[in-house]
Amino acid sequence: MAAHGLRLHGFGFKILGLERVGHLLASADSAAWSSHARHRPALPGHTHKNCANCIDYALNWRQRVINAIPTHQQVMLTDRSAA
């Protein structure tokens, strides 16, 4: 569908999925960061029980995701019969 110009959104995407097909997506979301934070102590200096709703944790996670996405772009093949 991306090859036909549709802007795709990945609902609930994991980092591994983004590594594999992130170049085909216009956007993606996941609640993995919040779940991950919920089961760990709060970040140093934070006074809340955990960082499940913490902007600092979310932004750190976001950077980790961005760093995991390959910078190369896969060449999209076009349908020659449409030309």
Shape: elongated
**What's the overall average pLDDT, rounded?**
82
What is the chain-wise order of helices and strands?
Answer: EHEHH
Spatial arrangement of strands, main beta sheet? 1-2
Q: Structural class of the helix and strand makeup?
A: alpha+beta
Q: Could you name the ranges where pLDDT drops below 50 across 5 or more consecutive residues?
A: 74-78
Helical percentage: 25-40%
- The Cα radius of gyration reads 17 Å
For the sheet with most strands, the description reads: 2 strands, parallel
Q: Termini, distance in Å?
A: 17 Å
Say how many strands there are: 2
- Portion of residues in beta strands equals 5-15%
| Number of contiguous helices | 3
Characterization of the model:
This protein has 83 residues and is of the alpha+beta class. It has a domain at 12-69. It is 34% helix and 8% strand. The protein is built from 3 helices and 2 strands, in the order βαβαα. The chain has helices spanning 15-21, 32-38, 55-68; strands spanning 8-10, 25-28. A two-stranded parallel ribbon has the order 1-2. The chain is elongated and about 50 Å long. The two termini are 17 Å apart. Mean pLDDT is 82; it is low at 74-78.
Relevant terms:
single chain, 83 residues, alpha+beta, two-stranded parallel sheet, 3 helices
What's the structural blueprint in terms of helices and strands?
Layout: E1 8-10, H1 15-21, E2 25-28, H2 32-38, H3 55-68
Parallel strand pairs: 1-2
